[in-house]
Amino acid sequence: MKAVDTNLLDLLKKSERFVVPIYQRVYSWGKDECAQLWKDMMRAGSRDSLANHFTGSIVYIERDQGSNTAKEPDLLIDGQQRVTTVTLVLAALASHLQQLPPGQQEPVEGFSSQKIRGKYLTNVYEEGDEFFKLTLTNRDKDALQRVIKDLEPFEEDSRVTVNFRYFVEQIAALDDAGLKTLCEGLNKLVVVDVKLSRGQDDPQLVFESMNATGKKLTQADLIRNFVLMDLAQGLQAQLYNDYWYPMERVFAEHGERRFDEFVRHYLTMKTRKIPRLDDVYEAYKEFAFGSDSSDPAWKEKLVADLYVFSTYFSNMAFGREPDRQLKQRFDEVEQLATVAYPFQLRLYSDYESQRLSHSDFVQVLDALISYLFRRNICGIPTNSLNKTFNTLVHRVNPDDYAASVLGYLLSLPDYRRFPNDEEFVEKLESEQLYFHKKRNYLLHKLENFDSKEVVPTAQYTVEHIMPQKVTPEWKAELGDNWEEVHRSFLHTLGNLTLTGYNPEYSNRSFAEKREMKGGFKESPLRLNQFLRERTTWSQADIEQRASDLSAKAVKMWGYPAVNQEVIERYSSSDRHTFDWSLTHSILEALPYGTWTNYQELAEAVGTGPQALAQHLSNHAGCHHAYRVMTWDGHLADRFRWSDEQDDRDPLVVLKEDGVQMIDGLADADQRLNSAQLLELVEEGE
User: Fold this and answer.
1) For the whole prediction, is pTM greater than 0.90?
2) How does residue 384 score in pLDDT terms, banded at 50, 70 and 90?
3) Burial class for 499, CB neighbours closer than 10 Å (0-12, 13-18, 19+)
4) Does residue 630 contact residue 612 with C-beta atoms inside 8 Å?
């Protein structure tokens, strides 16, 4: 590897061609980055005392260990944003100078339109792509070439064109002195010229180490470069066009984060480990190097496998599944949780390879939906679900597929349990579901229960049949204990419905809501059928309607009919023990200057404060156990160092860890609650 400081314009002049490899991300600098570069150039050009302005690094792989005078292009692997933007400035400047009177077309020696194009933008005696000193990836290539040739019409949907027009506007506003300042500023741009030799240097390692600055790359960018970098250009193009670009197009519609999520689920399924979203690239590299890297086609197999599973994921998560029955169920799972995707990827793979039948696939998805929704309604903490589905991926018996999955789910204990009908119904009828985050999903499903003609309910709003504000008419209708009825049943399932007439209903009496135009009596919604048949609305009516609706819910989100023998056969081996791994992960991840208490940590991991305290006192491997304190921030009376020879003062250690003690109590502002603790390890839905 050769690295030297060099003038950027000299590098462009001496280089025959730079080609941005097909796997590199598209040109993405926005107005802010362009404005900063403009400001830097104008500042450098206006200061005689400033000899140069450093703008970063340019990293490229020389072709066949050649030199910059070779006909083959150099592959630009880092710095393309910077080089492209400077190229746009030069193109805009050349276009502007060409339109000036003859005596003003070279404000600084060497900066005429013809010289700029001939030295920095083009190879005047070449044709085709070789005519241009810089060639971008497919989606930006034509846009840049039209800009350099000043060939209208430009491609208006390209960032290249947008930024070119920005510089055209900036240059048009300059006077003669300003043009000289710009030329001087361009002449002072300096970069670190990093030339890599193919077969000798590892371009990926150099790329990673030098990418700490500039526009931050996504995990997808890093994985793409890792897979495709340093391959022969023809193979790069083939793998990019056959596999990566189709993936890129699909995920581009849904945000870069969804690709990171997909790779995380993919790695969880493949490795049994759950990486953090920000560590997906490193985890993918570890997975890749753990495969057969001695196989000449190993990278091709890696990207092909990732592509196949990405199609499964996009079918499930983005509504692309062609099978109507499966699509309906995938849509529901996507609404309920995303933590099941490692397991779903395994299911889809087995379905595609015909190890899982269509009917078993449907049965397993129905059980999955019931498991997720019942737990949601019952308020069971979600922090265990990642590990539950990670385990389930590897507990499937392909010879008894559906039974092995259902048996395992029904065997799970405690905070991982599959709520039974009694628990589910009790919560449905008593909880204040108006505030539940899955309220609209619940009402939509109840409205369309047992019907092939699906009614879209997004256009309707949730109506309190007994209104939130109690009028004299409602007090009379509810009876002497109206306050208790209103307090206990206002937000419960039996008192909630859907309507398009929410403002009109307001606080009217039940009879008015029923008889008015657009009232319950005229409503076509199935949820209002019960209301058409009532003349009054009382506690008994609310309870009866809740009972009717919960009976439908039990059928829709059914408890799997699996006999005890099957449950025992496929039961989880740890059903009578508690999994403390999440506790340990959270404690290891506690940031400097934070603490928590037994109640918050117990809620986060799904156990009780006493059981947690006992585990921390008995388990020598619990990192940061001293930073788990009483509810008000006292050091626990039972706290002891696991090493009996350790005589450190815990309060001194807490202070060293950044925890502030005020009158013997830890600073409440530094305490992490259960949700914040789970965010440390990215657990939950």
Assistant:
1) no
2) confident
3) buried
4) no
Residue showing tokens 């029904």: 410
Map tokens 């197999």 to a residue. 301
Q: Which two tokens mark 533? A: 């048949």
pLDDT one-digit tens code per residue, 272-281: 888 888 889 8
Q: Measured in whole angstroms, how far is the alpha carbon of residue 27 from the centre of its chain?
A: 22
Parallel/antiparallel/unpaired status of strands 18-19 and 134-135: parallel
**Pair of tokens at residue 9:** 């314009």
Tokens found for residue 376: 């949601």
The confidence band for 50, taking pLDDT boundaries of 50, 70 and 90, is: confident
| Cα-Cα-Cα-Cα dihedral sign, residues 146, 150, 156, 162 | positive
Torsion of CA 522, 524, 527, 532, to 10 degrees: 30
Which region, left, alpha or beta, applies to residue 29 given φ > 0 means left and ψ of -120 to 50 means alpha?
A: beta
DSSP for 485-548, please give it: HHHHHTTSGGGEEEES-HHHHTT--HHHHHHSTTSTTT---GGGHHHHT-S---HHHHHHHHHH
Indicate if the pLDDT at residue 148 is higher than 80: yes
Counting every residue written for the chain, the total comes to 685
Please give the structure tokens belonging to residue 318: 């983005």
Round to whole Å and give the CA distance between 529 and 615. 53
Angle of helix 219-228 versus helix 245-252 axis, rounded to 10: 170
Q: Which helix (H) or strand (E) holds 55?
A: strand 53-62
Q: What token pair was written down for 679?
A: 């965010």
Widest CA span in the chain: 98
CA torsion sign for 474, 475, 478, 484 is positive
- Rounded distance between C-alpha atoms, residue 471 and residue 507, angstroms: 7
